[in-house]
Amino acid sequence: MFNGILKKQDDSVYKDGVIILYGTKTGNAKVISKELKKQLKKLDINPVTMNMKKADTSILEKVSKAFFIVSTHGDGEPPASAKKFFKQLHSNKMSALNHLDFSVCGLGDSSYDEFCEASKTLNKQLLKLGANAIVKRAECDADFGKTAAKWIKKIKNQFESSAESVIEEENISFATNDENLYEGKLVTCEKLSKAENGNYTYHIELSDFNKPISFYPGDLIEIMPSNPLWLVEEIAQKLNAPEFNDELIHRKEICRLSPLTIKAYAWLTNNKEVDTLIIDKERLKNFVDRANFLDLITDYPLDCSAREIIDILPNLTGRQYSIANYPTKSDDSLHLMIKTVRFDYRERKHEGAASVYTNEFLKLGESIQFKYIKSKEYYLPQDISTPLILIGAGTGYAPLRGYLQQWYMQKPSSKAWVIWGEQKHKLSHKYNIELKTLQKKTKLLHVDCVSSRDKDTKTYVQDQIMSNPKQFMKFIKKGASIYVCGSKEMGADVENTIARMLESSNTTLDALKNKNRYITSVY
């Protein structure tokens, strides 16, 4: 049995040691790393466990085995906390790692094209540096439990001195960190605006928490919703199995699909039409983007027991929302900006589990449970003299609202420029009124609200940047930090626009990113 024991001090990390490194945004990678450490300690192995943001790649030269757990965000990138480690690993100064045995566990969402891309990048670079992969890289979907458990089991088997010991995956569990679980009451639910499809965006306020909570703009909360009762009843009727209603309401993911769920369905049913769907990548993506579980069992009928079918469904996962305010001594409530998701697809009604739950189902005064996710990488600069450019579209304005409140409360000496895109901006909008009021209080704030549906010519946030090059470059020269929040498409358009604008300057977009002056949160 391998007996390398490490302590957290650098001078006691030796080449016969083991280290677990994780890169995370929401905390799931940390949860897996803790369980891996727990399982290895049962074998008298005490590995160092470390967040990549605190690690230097030189530590890999001092150990013989390293296990990595990393999530994927944006366009296949590692979380912000791991970017420095990734950059060091890809540096020309990086030493060979021929002595190192390793394995990588990736976390992601298979509904995205760049599923677990950061783990692929990490695995490829470690191999390039000469390291030896002793366990095949794992790819965990949003419901990561089963896949992560299998990965941990394979790692434990590498350390077993006898083949007689059988490690069951059932003995591996991922307990939720109760410290990050909260409960609060819905105290405000106010309509903000109406989209062209008829769906409303709401201003939500939670208060009366079961324990003190200290949060900042840039942080997230994850709401665990209940699935719509009408959808559950239609699925139960289709499967002729009403006895599974409670499980479908509270524990199974039915409002959205992942490619992995569809592949499991194809394997279970041996349905050739589903195989054809999977092969056609574009058609599969369109189906995943719009369909729910009812669509799958309706459009591709099967002859299996209800229990077999329900067992392929992943566990219900939470929905994440940016915190939209900066708490004060007089008001410690937590604000959210949530757009109701409701649309027709194949002439069937579809709803988002969390948005309908918070906006329409939950009553004032009722309690809601959520997980608090601290995201220091998305906080405002500590230097309050730093100018800010805040760019968002739709509900991407949520964290920007919090940033603005924090900026103003800190009595800044520098300017802030807000560019907020909506389909239509209305003067009666609560947040529009707030912006106008704040502009009257300080001359340091410049606001541009752009609309993509108000006029014949559509105007987007990137157009507003491009039309004000002098102002943009003035902010950049004074050291401005840029925060971008909204859809991936919007984020890509903004990034391309800014990259072009910087071409004739003495800086680049990559330089801004490396200095943490360009922060994005896209979905």
UniProtKB/TrEMBL annotation:
GO terms for cellular component: cytosol. Gene3D superfamilies: 3.40.50.360, NADPH-cytochrome p450 Reductase, Chain A, domain 3 (1.20.990.10), Nucleotide-binding domain of ferredoxin-NADP reductase (FNR) module (3.40.50.80), Translation factors (2.40.30.10). Residues 18-156 form the Flavodoxin-like domain. It comes from the Bacteria. InterPro entries: FAD-bd_FR_type, Flavdoxin-like, Flavodoxin/NO_synth, Flavoprot_Pyr_Nucl_cyt_Rdtase, Flavoprotein-like_sf, FNR_nucleotide-bd, NADPH_Cyt_P450_Rdtase_alpha, OxRdtase_FAD/NAD-bd. Residues 179-381 form the FAD-binding FR-type domain. GO terms for biological process: cysteine biosynthetic process. Its cofactor is FMN. Keywords: Amino-acid biosynthesis, Cysteine biosynthesis, Flavoprotein, FMN. PANTHER family: NADPH OXIDOREDUCTASE A, NITRIC OXIDE SYNTHASE-RELATED. This is Flavodoxin domain-containing protein. It comes from Plebeiibacterium sediminum. The lineage of its organism: Bacteria, Pseudomonadati, Bacteroidota, Bacteroidia, Marinilabiliales.
